[in-house]
């Protein structure tokens, strides 16, 4: 009888347990559209040279690791880096997505980029245009906005090599 009572209590406990949480929405159309808009806003902010606008597109704890640059940790560091860039150059950034996925409040955007810098000082030579691949890890922030949490850029162009040394005999 004790076993039967125990089984009844266990059955009641299982029946009253909350259901397993539903799986987060995957590639919800509104989320994908918001990520597409975020990507467009990144290009606009860089094109406008607006470091504050760039910073608002990143989470407060974001990390940006771009090719041949120090890693920027935190929104403030990202804004500081962008401010330095925009003080010397006009920027044209083009992002071409190859894969955009969301799942709940996380997602990623993977694609290709081109990056052109035009010096604001006409006496300064223009650095070469860059192109490559990017991967950003995205997070829907507490205010419901999608932001970049991790930003990785990788140039697909070879690193410029220094000119060979000139020999003393001119050869």
Structure notes:
The chain has 171 residues and is an alpha+beta fold. It has a single domain, classed as Nuclear Transport Factor 2, Chain: A. It has 4 helices and 6 strands. A 6-stranded mixed sheet has the order 2-1-6-5-4-3. The model has no long low-confidence stretch (mean pLDDT 90).
Summarize the structure.
The protein is an alpha+beta fold and 171 residues long. The protein has 4 helices and 6 strands.
Number of helices: 4
Integer count of domains: 1
The main sheet orders its strands as: 2-1-6-5-4-3
Assembly type of the chains comes to single chain
Describe the secondary-structure layout.
Blueprint: H1 2-16, H2 29-48, H3 51-56, E1 58-65, E2 72-73, H4 75-88, E3 89-103, E4 106-119, E5 130-140, E6 146-155
Parallel strand pairs: 1-6
Antiparallel strand pairs: 1-2, 3-4, 4-5, 5-6
């Amino acid at each position: 009888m004790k076993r039967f009572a125990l089984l009844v209590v266990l059955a009641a406990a299982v029946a009253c347990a909350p259901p397993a949480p539903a799986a987060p929405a995957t590639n919800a159309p509104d989320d994908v559209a918001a990520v597409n808009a975020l990507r467009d806003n990144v290009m606009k902010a860089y094109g406008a040279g607006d470091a504050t606008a760039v910073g608002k597109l990143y989470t407060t704890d974001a990390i940006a690791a771009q090719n041949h640059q120090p890693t920027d940790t935190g929104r403030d560091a990202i804004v500081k880096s962008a401010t330095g860039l925009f003080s010397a150059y006009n920027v044209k950034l083009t992002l071409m997505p190859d894969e955009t996925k969301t799942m709940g409040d996380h997602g990623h955007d993977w694609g290709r980029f081109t990056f052109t810098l035009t010096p604001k000082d006409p006496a300064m030579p223009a650095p070469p245009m860059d192109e490559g691949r990017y991967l950003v890890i995205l997070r829907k922030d507490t205010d419901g906005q999608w932001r970049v949490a991790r930003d990785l850029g990788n140039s697909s162009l070879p690193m410029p090599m220094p000119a060979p040394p000139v020999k003393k005999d001119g050869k």
